[in-house]
Amino acid sequence: MTPGIQQYSDDVKHAIDHSSSSLHDISLQIHANPELGYEEVFAHKILTDYLEAQGFNVTRGAYGIKTAFVAEYESPATAAAAARGETVRSVGFCSEYDALPGVGHACGHNLIAIAGLAAALGVKAALEKHNLVGRLRVIGTPAEETTGGKIPLIEKGAFDGLDACMMTHPSPADVVYSTILSVGGYKVEYFGKASHASASPWEGINALDALVTAYNALGLLRQQTAPTSRVHCIITNGGQAANSTSFISNKEQSLHNNVVRILNAAAESTGCTVKLTKEMEYQPVPHNELLAGRYTQYTEDLGTKYLPRAMQEALPSGSTDMGNVAHYVPGIHPVYNIVGLNGELDLTVSNHSIRFTEQAKTEVAHEATLRSAKGLALTGLDLLVEPGFAEAVKADFEARVPKGGNVALQMKARAAVGAGCGCH
């Protein structure tokens, strides 16, 4: 236990345990009422009503986004400290709550929703009881599974002023140092010319030919693609004049350029025209070493069992818009095991599967969520009250993240069975 918060640790954990029943009820209600991105009206209401009842200043529909919210708390000692010109630290926690089509909460966002609340409640309890200085912010972030609700929230200032922002994600394994890749997507539309298929086929230009040409060429590109990259395509409409495909990859410029060349060449070779529309772009998650180290220490103290770091790093996972946040302010995105509390592994309960949907409403999943939330809360409290810790966290962030936060980090090549979040 870090000396700076040892005296407050029991208060943090007790506050989270005390709220366990009400948080579990919220989690189960969100699980039973899955909502897609930007349609999370039920989840938005139940979460904001709860935070308001717990003494947070809540902004619903934050920054013009209907199902986003910001909930803030400032301890009584903070105003006086700020008036004296003292530095006041701020920590944020993200809650996600969107579901997936067909399989509901198969990524466990009902659990992420309450993890952000639980972490904030734990820190708030310590600030209140011991008259400590600090600010808290819970950011409700919709649409992680689609275009990334955190991205417009970053642009609109939701994360401004934070010394760090953290979240945690359910998984079939406990991993702090997972390799979370960036992801980008294009909607690709080919336009041809209709003609009678029997009487005058020579008058037509077949847009489907262009799409199939592009699809096959992208398949051939995969053999030259590094293990850190992925290219995936779907055909959403192959029977009308406009046809679509999308690709997902990491943001290596050479791969991106190759894909765009293929898409354009397919149009040229068939006489079609093509329209490329960028749909989303998630950054990889840079691990802040100090935040990750403290979280690991606290969750190990609570009974979490981790593989060696090198083995954790060898487990590639999915992608998340939390990467964009962690390029903007210091942050971490650990994943935690909802299969068992003692390091049990069952990779058949994988994210985005119906088995994960079922597991996300179990008692084990709830207990694991609160354990992870305690780790976030204790780490966040360190940031607020431990002298020099926030400065060290910032220094690590500035050393690791490219200036401006818009350039993907260089990732080592890895190929293994994934045990991470599985989003995208």
Automatic annotation (TrEMBL):
GO terms for molecular function: dipeptidase activity. Pfam families: Peptidase_M20 (PF01546). Gene3D superfamilies: 3.30.70.360, Zn peptidases. CDD domains: M20_ACY1L2-like. It comes from the Eukaryota. Belongs to the peptidase M20A family. NCBIfam families: amidohydrolases. This is Peptidase M20 domain-containing protein 2. The lineage of its organism: Eukaryota, Fungi, Fungi incertae sedis, Mucoromycota, Mortierellomycotina.
